[in-house]
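Researcher: I'm preparing a figure for a lab meeting and need a structural model of a single chain. I don't have an experimental structure, so a prediction will have to do for now. The sequence is pasted below. Please return the structure as tokens so I can convert it later.
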Amino acid sequence: MNVRKAKYGWAWSIFFSLLSVAWVFPILLVIVNSFKKKVYISRKPFEIPIGKMFVEFENYLRGIEKIQFFDALKNSLFITVCSVAVIILCTSMCAWYISRVKSVFSTGMYYMCLFSMIVPFQMVMFTLSKLANMLHLYNPIGIILVYLGFGAGLSVFMFCGFVRGIPLEIEEAAMIDGCTPIQTFFRVVFPILKPTCITVAILQAMWIWNDYLLPYLVLDIKRYKTIPIAIQYLRGGYGSVDMGAMMAMLVLAIIPIVIFYIFCQKYIIEGVVAGAVKG
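Model: Understood. Here is the structure written out token by token.
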């Protein structure tokens, strides 16, 4: 068996190396074209920007000015950070309740969360936008509640799997020492949930940061633009697109989430596996 693995190991290494290049290549293409003049992006998209093709940071400066990038960045950061924090806090407490309280209500709540994972967004898109408008949720605070609803299903599922693997005796010992249920959760249970918290944070942050449709439907985009919405304003009338500025803004848009993912990626598999096999 070991001989067979050694025999074909080089082939698998080459295959996955080529596969990783295929995944990274579109990102590199965007970065390369963000330093080109607009006319050369469509004519010579695969060439390195040298000579008269190279425009330094002109595309970046023009894009930042056109779409008011830093205002959009502020809105995206606020919505993403607050939404992820609210999702982690609420869904971890919900999962703890579901896992520890055995009742028809808790069981029904669990299956409702699972059901929400399979409902297509297009099915609730119209009613959601109408309800959000009626409840005046068309602002950064309001959309956090909307993201909590959409992110609860997967998060509760992952937290429930992890909580069921925590020995109940630890919580009983804390309550014997005088802790209330709330103190038991925040002092004992929540620190143990760290791997799953980080996994949920990464998955939800990547989704919320890059989301275009939900903010477009819910937010008052005249006042509150996220980065994906702001970038679309680089499309002019009659199909004209400032490709240079758009490429530059796409690069700036992916930098924060890529940095966040690089620092936290080692926790993804740990949290997913722990939440999937425990219980």
